[in-house]
Structure formats: structure tokens, C-alpha cells
Amino acid sequence: MNTIQTVTLNPAVDKTVTVENFSFGELNRIKTIRTDAGGKGINVAKVLQRFSVPVKALGFQAGHEGKVILEKLREQGISSYLIEAEGETRTNLKVVDERTKQTTELNEAGFSPSEALLEEFVERFESSLSEAALVVLGGSLPPGTPVDFYRRLIKLANRKGVRTILDADGEALARGIEAVPFALKPNIHELEALFDTTFTTDEQIVSAAQQLIHKGISYVMVSMGGEGSILVSEREAIRAKPFPITPLSTVGAGDSMVAAMAYSFVHGKSLEDMARWTSAAGTVTASKSGTEVCTLDEVQDKLGLVNIFRLTIEV
Ligand SMILES: Nc1ncnc2c1ncn2[C@@H]1O[C@H](COP(=O)(O)OP(=O)(O)O)[C@@H](O)[C@H]1O
Ligand SMILES: O=P(O)(O)OC[C@H]1O[C@](O)(COP(=O)(O)O)[C@@H](O)[C@@H]1O
Q1: Which of 81, 162, 258, 315 is the most buried (most CB within 10 A)?
Q2: Does residue 161 lie in a domain region?
Q3: Where would I find the Carbohydrate kinase PfkB domain in this sequence (predicted)?
């Protein structure tokens, strides 16, 4: 009953390359290359394993790169149940510009699991809920997957009284919200797309998060890259500003926040502590290369450096 389960329907091998000074439409020479097992739920599982939380990564994998992912998870001691699909697991290219410190991401669409495999996954997911303390659902849906797939999984979890955190975008996010997950982690672009607007102030972000909370969602955490994050519950809103870092690759930073959020829920942390933990986790990961994620010691070490302040909320 105390395992956190993560769902990654569309995993990826993340191939991170660094270039000195990225220029569009020109020849760019690669300086370094590294590959990591990626995909949102898988990254969350990597962090939780490092935090010594019992975790299991559920989802799919396919082809040669799927074996690579399984091997990397095995090396890290992460328990997984990734159903083998036909086709090949995608490779997502991340280009890090050493000069600007910016990461450009080129994500493939991924393999397409058959209808029968999707049903097999739903069955497996439903039966695994009896062992789950919490479920994290993250990332894009593989091509051909019904857009209401997260909605379906969240409904099953709700029926069994298992809390869920959803980290998705576009239609999968919009439909997932209809099932009322326990918590959401949109980044600012995903939130803006959801509300079909641009936010210019913290107050506008809090008000959008409150609209989601009025639908029954308990927590909304909005991440904003180097600007930090805003965490909103029914009664509180907290702004976290990251400590200064030299970003090496921001890939996995959002997933590290989600992992720290799950960790905070199972440890019954206050919203203020959760804001510290999630911000420190995201920021530490952003200071690491490739899709390398934070460790528990590193995060604990930095908690005191996160700048926290309360935002007003209309109750
Ligand atoms: N350039 C940066 N400098 C400092 N912290 C960063 C930077 N980029 C990301 N982070 C940290 O990682 C968190 C998540 O980043 P973000 O890019 O919003 O997530 P996502 O990958 O989900 O879009 C931020 O809230 C912040 O704590
Ligand atoms: O499923 P999507 O939306 O294409 O995202 C997958 C990508 O997101 C990641 O999980 C990283 O996510 P974050 O940067 O939001 O933490 C990568 O490992 C992976 O390549």
C-alpha cells in the first residue's frame, strides 16, 4: 500500500548533445553526447528511487531502445512493469547551447501501442492500484492512444481512493482534468494553452489555479523555468524562487518537481515545505547534465536556499 506508481505510456531515450554556440540553419559540431532513460514517469521514478521511496514504473517500451531503458532502470535498481509494444521506443534529442545555457528539445512521436495492449495496460494498472499510495501520470500519449486515456486511468484511481498527480499537456491534460486528479503540475506554457491566454502576473496564475481547484483538484503547481514556481491549494498560494545555478540541462527538472511533490504528499509536508522541496529538486536537476536527476542529499542541502513568499488568495 505504500508504493508510488508512475505511468509512462510514451517513454524515451533522451540523447543530450552539447554545442558551443547553437546556430539555426548552420553546421553545429557536437562536443559531448550522453543518453539517459527518459519520459516523465520514468524520471519521477528515478528521483523517488534516489529518495528511498518504494516506487514502480509502469507503462510501455518497444524495440532495441526499450531494452536500453529496461537495462538502465535495472542498473538503478528501479522496479518496473513496462509492457512490450511493437515498433521502436523514441529517441528525444536535447541540444544544450553552452553559451546561452538554453536547452532545445526535439521529441519524436513514439511507437503506437495496439488497442489490445492499451487494454492490457488498463487491466494491469487497475490491479496494481491495491498496492499504490499514489500514482503519477506523466508525458505525452503515444500516437493512436485515445485522448481521454489519462481521464480513464484517473477515474479508476479515484474509485479506489488512490491519489493522482497529472503532468501532461494539450488535450490529454484537458481531458484528464475532467476526471479530477488530486494534483496537477502544468508548466506556465501548458497552463496558458489550457486557458487560451497569456499570464503576465502571479495573481493571474493563482486565479487560474484556483479555477482548477474549484473543480475539485486539491493542488496545482505551476512551474516557470528559471522564474521558479507557484504552488496553490484551496487556502494557500506560495511562490518559490530558485537559488542561482548554472543550468546544464533543464530536462527532467519538471519531473523532479513532480517527484518531490509526491514525496511531500506521502510524508504529509505542509504547503510551504512542499514549495521548498519541489523548487530545490527542480533547480538541482536543472544544474545537472543530460537527464541526470537530483539526489535526496543534494535537495536537503539546498532547502534553505529557496526563496519562499506567500501570495494572497481569494477564498
Ligand atoms: N534556468 C533555470 N534556473 C534555475 N532553475 C531552473 C531553471 N530551469 C528550470 N529550473 C527549475 O526547474 C523547475 C521546473 O522547470 P520548468 O522548465 O518550468 O519545468 P518543465 O520541464 O516541466 O517545463 C523550475 O521551477 C525551477 O525550480
Ligand atoms: O512525453 P513528452 O511530452 O514528449 O515529454 C518527454 C520528455 O520529457 C522528459 O520527461 C523531461 O520532462 P521535464 O523536462 O518536463 O521534466 C524527457 O525525459 C522526455 O524526453
Answers
A1: 258
A2: yes
A3: 17-294
